[in-house]
Amino acid sequence: MISTFPRVQRWSCYEGFWYFPMFLEGLMSAQDHFIPQSTDIFITSCPKTGTTWLKALTFAICTRSRLSGSSASSLLTKVPHDCVPLLEYDFAQNPMKRDRAVPLVSTHVPYSSLPKSVVSSCCKLIYICRDAKDAFVSLWHFIADLQRSKNIEPLSLEEAFELFCSGISSYGPYWDHVLGYWRASLEFPEKILFLTYEEMKKDTASHVKKLAEFMGCSFTLEEEEEGEVQKIISLCSFEKLSNLEVNKNGKHRADTSFAMKNSVFFRKGEIGDWANNLTAEMGARLDYIMEQKLKGSGLKLPR
Ligand code: A3P
């Protein structure tokens, strides 16, 4: 199905979710060819919900034992998206091309459309989501920035909001994306860890320890005493990452038609920025939609 909204006609709907064609093609290829390693951990999310941060944290956690004195983290020289590949993009042309030493793969694909090879594997999944209003505002800025950089006139905030509320957004409907992973996390708690951006912001230390435990590489007492958790939090903080030279001036997928500045992944990194962009009525409307959609699921997203 193709969108009938004139300004987003290039978007396609597959199994109830909306995609840019390039990512849908990548998903089709991954569904046919991608075979995970048994040790893989999937970083899963709807776009703009904290993926960059979660990639940085999980990458820093699982590579920490390889770093000693002289060997600095790749996070200092690469944007987190270049440290953790995206299933439906990076494996689209070459499904098996990867750094096998890093057991991390990311995807925005909804749970119900994940390749069977992933769902039926013993791989673990970590999902992050966020208040819908902040996710929408973050997404709008991201897409508008990208479009302006290519001299394309972006949708107005109001137009994009109408579409988002009707379920049309990148990998949306947002609520169905969240609900798919939420329900799966209830069914398979040892396989899927469900997190929120807001809770992670409020208590990052306990989440870093929880992540390490879930990933099977808990911090030792010695590491905790040496401040390893705090080092990882500082390295992956918005302030640290957004101020690195590579993230201020570097480019992601520089040699492709989908090149973008690394800085687009770092905007404000705050909870509640929606209020500076949406009216109170728009906020209340999206809250109401989310409440109705999540009703009966047992999930209440923090705001
Ligand atoms: P804002 O646009 O609200 O600032 P994603 O990584 O899924 O694309 O999500 C992007 C959002 O995460 C952006 O939110 C971005 O600023 C924020 N973000 C990026 N890096 C972060 C970090 N290290 N810590 C906290 N938030 C971060």
TrEMBL record:
Q: What is its EC number?
A: 2.8.2.-
InterPro entries per the UniProt record, alphabetical: P-loop_NTPase, Sulfotransferase_dom
Keywords noted in UniProt: Transferase
* Ranges for domain Sulfotransferase: 39-298
Recorded GO molecular functions are: sulfotransferase activity
Transferase keyword on record: yes
Q: Does the keyword Transferase apply?
A: yes
Q: Which family does it belong to?
A: Belongs to the sulfotransferase 1 family.
Q: What is this protein called?
A: Sulfotransferase
Query: Where does this protein come from, organism-wise?
Result: Salix purpurea (Purple osier willow)
